[in-house]
Amino acid sequence: MRYAFVGLGHRAQLYVDALLGEWSDTGEIVALCDVNRTRIGYYLDRIGRDVPCFAPHEFGEMLRLADAVVVATVDATHARYVVAALDAGKDVIVEKPLCTTAEDCAAVIEAAERSTGRLVVTFNYRYSPRNSAVRRLVADGAIGDVTSVHFEWVLDTIHGADYFRRWHRDKASSGGLLVHKSTHHFDLVNWWLADTARSVYARSALRFYGARNARARGLRDRPARAHGAPGLGTDPYLLDISADPRLKRLYLDAEHEDGYLRDQDVFDDGVTIEDNMAVLAEYSRGAALTYSLNAHGPFEGYRVAMNGTEGRLELEVVERAWTPPRAAVDPTAADKAHATGAFERLVLQRHWSEAEEVVIPSGAGGHGGGDALMLDDVFRGPGEDPLGRQAGHLAGVASVMVGVSADRSAASGVPVLLEDGGTRYAS
Question: How far does CA 392 lie from the centroid of its chain?
Fold first, then answer.
């Protein structure tokens, strides 16, 4: 299989390194496409040989060289590349979210239905063993018919803050966190329940990051960016991209070409997304979802409580127990915090029975071995998977449309109804 890549930020490296390493027998990298030649140079160095390189306006020409395309561009541009590749009959591997608007969702559905190509959305959280265990228990009827799900996700001031430094802070580019980040979580619920949402009500606000919140807390005279700022090294919110060789090469060394600043201040006026979100959704078979996302927590993790007609499941995950104050300037500090105090616990309690802890298998690598399982699925195919972890275009659309509808509801103050679980919805 001949693979081409469009979008060469940090996320593309997961797939590039896979094709250069354990999955090298499944295909080769034949072309690269990005707006920035410096970033292209970083990936050429990783690949270790010359491959044809293209600018975005040459994407159609690049498609002639490939059998499949990996799309890892800015979220709002996903649809244009996905549709073009599908219309050329190519397979597509696309990062979540599949797209950011209802209109783009409709365009992707139409392209997928007329194409001979196959589309995979890389929802790596499906492959995390703890989340797979929840899917297995629900599918096996361990708690009967699910009546409600409570899902709380907490991003800390390492991970959460980073969305407010980079292009994700611009809602026109990312769709906001209800689309960019929560798409992961809405997909998990859709997958766990084997169902789709039919109505959504939400509230959201920017309560912590941004210039107004900073001024309210007495944080004034902030730098526009971290690089060269007097507070770099002492201010925990200023990211030192020169301290991380990969970030330096991909962004600091590349910014002279396109002006993109990877280390913008999280407390300036350029933030147009929210950092606190709450969603209430009703599913087609009657289950209710209450969901919240907070992007400025002191720890990183999530909690899920799922009630059913025969019992209850509870999943608690702490991915980083605390946030070191030097994490933004010392790349090893976050790793050390991640290794200290992190845990995961899955508890099943059936009616009339004591609670029992469910053993979660774990493997090496990201997300408890989930990343490796996903890459195997993407590059070798899903094979016989009773959990149905590989996600196609309809799953991608269904998750995006919960986020899009939640954002619309938060803006309007009224519930939003989804048509066919969001898979056919467009305003």
Answer: 16
> Left if phi > 0, otherwise alpha if psi is -120 to 50, otherwise beta: which for 194?
left
**Can you list the positions of beta strands (E) in 72-224?**
91-95, 119-122, 146-156, 197-205
Q: How many CA atoms lie within 13 A of 65 on its CB side?
A: 18
Whole-angstrom Cα distance, residue 16 to residue 65? 17
- β-strand pairing of 276-283 with 288-297: antiparallel
Q: Which has the closest alpha carbon to 97: 113, 84, 79?
A: 79
Tokens of residue 413, six digits: 């103050």
Q: Dig out the tokens for 343 from the structure.
A: 């845990």
From residue 272, alpha-carbon distances to 100, 164, 185 in Å are 15, 9, 22
- Rounded distance between C-alpha atoms, residue 41 and residue 250, angstroms: 9
Cis-peptide into 415, omega within 30 deg: no
Contacts of 370 (CB under 8 A, 6+ apart): 124, 125, 126, 127, 128, 129, 131, 132, 363
For each of the domains in the chain, give its residue range(s) and CATH number, in order of start.
Answer: 2-123 (3.40.50.720), 125-208+271-366+389-422 (3.30.360.10), 211-258 (no CATH)
Instruction: Please report which helix (H) or strand (E) contains residue 53, including its range.
Output: strand 53-54
* Average pLDDT by stretches of 10, the chain with 427 residues: 97 97 98 98 98 98 98 98 98 97 97 97 96 98 98 96 97 98 98 97 98 92 94 93 94 97 96 98 97 97 98 96 82 70 95 97 73 94 93 97 97 90 49
Number of CB atoms found within 10 A of residue 419's CB: 11
* CA 181 from centre of chain: 5
What phi, psi does 286 have (nearest 5°)? 105, -15
